[in-house]
């Protein structure tokens, strides 16, 4: 139903999944393969590259930079629709808050005279991984963007932090879950997601 929908970037340019990447892949292979041979092996995906970049300290700028020119043309068209997409996400967030505020911790309403664009709608919930599996069984895709707090990231291991040094961050990392929030989401779909979450917790 909602699986794998709504977790992209609103201004992401389509070329990143298209022909331009095929060309860039060959360039990157020639430039970087001697230094990181495992990253550009056959079958490696962009997700694999980003995970590697995370381990290496976030150095994924080369790939995105080389896509820049092709992206610009797509972004020029998409910008005309950005306010409408943001407004739809704000509407969806309000519907989620109304339906779920008594069940899980939802993002706060926007302060006076501010606007939140809700690139994600992240709840805090108990038994997060069980809830995620339950939603997946019903076709609802979710995402965990930050499963590890910064001080436990492999790329920052040289700072010497260990589990327990930042307990609040570690607790939040175990509770956060992003729900579908894309602009085309319907009120009926939001109602369905909320009903499934309530059902999960009512089961105990």
Number of strands: 2
What percent of the residues sit in helical stretches (DSSP H or I)?
40-55%
The proportion of residues in beta strands is under 5%
Low-pLDDT stretches are none
The spatial strand order of the largest sheet comes to 1-2
Q: How is the CATH topology of the largest domain named?
A: Aspartate Aminotransferase, domain 1
Q: Which shape, going by the Cα principal axes?
A: globular
The tally of helices reads 8
Average residue pLDDT:
79
- Radius of gyration, whole Å: 20 Å
CATH architecture of the largest domain: Alpha-Beta Complex
> What's the level 1 CATH class of the largest domain?
Alpha Beta
Strand and helix layout:
Blueprint: H1 19-32, H2 46-55, H3 61-66, H4 68-78, H5 82-100, E1 121-124, H6 128-137, H7 167-175, E2 176-179, H8 187-203
Antiparallel strand pairs: 1-2
Q: How would you explain this protein's 3D organization?
A:
There is one protein chain. By secondary structure, the chain is mainly α. The chain has helices at 19-32, 46-55, 61-66, 68-78, 82-100, 128-137, 167-175, 187-203, and strands spanning 121-124, 176-179. Helix content is 47%, strand content 4%. The chain folds into two domains: 14-78, no CATH class; 81-203, Aspartate Aminotransferase, domain 1 (Alpha-Beta Complex). The chain is built from eight helices and two strands; from the N terminus they run H-H-H-H-H-E-H-H-E-H. It has a two-stranded antiparallel sheet with strand order 1-2.
